[in-house]
Amino acid sequence: MAEPAPVCLITGVGPGTGSALARRFGQVYRVAMIARKAERLAKLEAEIARSRGLVCDVADEAALHETFATIQREMGPPEIVIHNAVGGAFGDFQTIDPAVLRRNFEVNTMALLHLARLAAPAMVEAGRGTILCTGNTSTYRGKAAFAGFAPTKAAQRILAESMARSLGPEGVHVAYLAIDAVIDVPWTRRAQPDKPDTFFCLPEDIANECWHLAHQPRSAWTFDVQIRPDAEAW
């Protein structure tokens, strides 16, 4: 009997990047999809063979541990983990609700910590595995209106770098993909109807870059990657 396909766990399976990641990796992997909305997960389960949708708020540590245990028990240990869930809020440091910043830290940084601690032991034992994290422009710069989440994305990247230095010698690849762009989803199109197609970054292209990172040869691993459309000013 053939061995079952390896498992890829993806958090933040929304209508844009998360769904594109599930479709791309679902071509080869059994995909465990984590999101807060059951309806979207059910539709993707019907579309993507061998996929499993699990409702979970990654900011809830106990729920995240329970969900990971379910994946490990019913599907097996993930060979790839992609932390795509994101908490964001706009406002300067004087106007943001401190509780929102705290929650965003739980979603962006602490959830990455918990996922890595849960997934890494099996990866190290196997001598292979990949942990990817998606970021954005705020990872590298704290604009005035980004005070509600930029600190948490910067912390997320530094945590991932620390993980990469720790896990790399064990055969586990950790990479950080920052998307310096407006992602092409219905609500961003409605918000900026006058922008040309070249202004937006396609979720499918983001997913393909994540696929590339997850399958790099060990002699040429990348940690820090920034992607943007050719029309993006930077």
Q: What does this protein structure show overall?
A:
The chain has helices at residues 17-25, 38-47, 61-74, 98-126, 150-167, 186-191, 203-214, and strands spanning 7-11, 30-35, 52-55, 78-83, 130-136, 173-179, 182-183, 200-201, 224-227. The protein is an alpha/beta fold. It has a single domain (7-227), classed as NAD(P)-binding Rossmann-like Domain (Rossmann fold), CATH 3.40.50. Strands 3-2-1-4-5-6-9 form a seven-stranded parallel sheet, sandwiched between helices. It has a two-stranded parallel sheet with strand order 7-8. The mean pLDDT is 95.
Set out the fold topology.
Layout: E1 7-11, H1 17-25, E2 30-35, H2 38-47, E3 52-55, H3 61-74, E4 78-83, H4 98-126, E5 130-136, H5 150-167, E6 173-179, E7 182-183, H6 186-191, E8 200-201, H7 203-214, E9 224-227
Parallel strand pairs: 1-2, 1-4, 2-3, 4-5, 5-6, 6-9, 7-8
* Percentage of residues in strands: 15-25%
- State the share of residues found in helices, binned by percent: 40-55%
- Counted beta strands: 9
- What is the strand arrangement across the widest sheet? 3-2-1-4-5-6-9
Q: Tell me, briefly, the overall form.
A: globular
Radius of gyration: 17 Å
One letter per element, helices H and strands E, the order comes to: EHEHEHEHEHEEHEHE
Biggest sheet details? 7 strands, parallel
CATH architecture classification name:
3-Layer(aba) Sandwich
The CATH topology corresponds to: Rossmann fold
End-to-end Cα distance:
52 Å
Q: What structural class should be given to the helix and strand makeup? A: alpha/beta
Average of pLDDT: 95
| Uncertain residue ranges | none
Question: Based on the structure, what is the oligomeric state of the protein chains?
Answer: single chain
- Which superfamily, in CATH terms, is the homologous superfamily? NAD(P)-binding Rossmann-like Domain
**How many distinct domains?**
1
**The CATH top-level class label:** Alpha Beta
Question: Count the helices. How many?
Answer: 7
